[in-house]
Amino acid sequence: MTDGVLVNELEEIAPGGGQDKVYVATQWQLMWWKFRRHKMAIVGGFILIGLYLITIFCEFLAPYDPHRYDVKFAYAQPQRVHFYGQNGLGLYAYGLVGHRDPESLRMVFEVDRSVEVPLRFLVQGDPYKLWGLIPGTLHLFGAASNDQVVFVLGADRLGRDLLSRLLVGTRVSMTIGLVGVLMSMVFGILIGGSSGYFSGVYDTVVQRIIEFIRSIPSIPLWMALSAAVPKDWPPVRVYFSITIILSFISWTGLARVVRGKFLSLREEDFVMSARLVGSSEFRIIVRHMVPSFLSHIIASLTLSIPGMILSETSLSFLGLGIRPPAISWGVLLQDAQNLRSVALAPWLLIPGIAVVLAVLAYNFLGDGLRDAADPYSR
User: CB within 8 A of 377, min separation 6: which ones?
Assistant: First the structure.
């Protein structure tokens, strides 16, 4: 691409256009200008911001204690929220009346329009501890009376509110991707970078190890590693164990990418200059080579987080990952393993919609970051 064409391309992404802004803009400014032209990436970013806000304040946002159950409302259907009732304008839902079907012997719920359950914002409800530290009883919304329950997204097999469990499960499913990717980044950069920088026998050994790990089928490898996690471990310890397992599997892809970059960068002039001034090998790698393609690493990590989320969901769905009483999207989807349960209560698949939404949002964001990482490309 000629200089004139390149300037014209960059002028299109600069706010207000003009060559002056292009010539004095930093690399990060050019990336931001190009990124914000990617509309789906912006949408994905806002969705992820919303999901992580839920992650931070899930106890406050959940209308009820996620472990609160009432078997009388097992598989209760979602209740519609209305805006106008007998008492005028206001949020309310009709009550539910359950009875046993004489043929199938299952509970069948019908809407009782004679009973209106008012809903309020900022209500006192079930006690909780925000982040496991700060006690509280204030919830964003819920039934006006703590004795009444409204199932906005329905109930599970034990009569627990699915919306509350979905919001609380967001914390585990969304954070395990971040923690796992950070660990994969450390492994991938250190092992892959040193492999490409030093080359020789060390590079050969590392590449054979990577090829061996990547050749093992994922499900058997997950099962083998998860079998090493004792069943009597507390949920927090299991959470970090699953994070380490996912990181152990997923660092190989980034290591390959970093190795290829280091092979091309180690002969560059700025690396040779760093060697001549006496910089250590570790300093050359961390302070000079890694920052030169940091934008590419960020884009790669963003695209790898959905894989972490799907892996945790798959492990928990199969009973090999996060286990009850801990809550994650994969744990919630365990109730959907039974085809009969899904046929009777299709709302049990709603956590799967949350997984799809999060994965799509990360993919859109990753596509935008990947394009913005090279602002000089068309």
Answer: 371
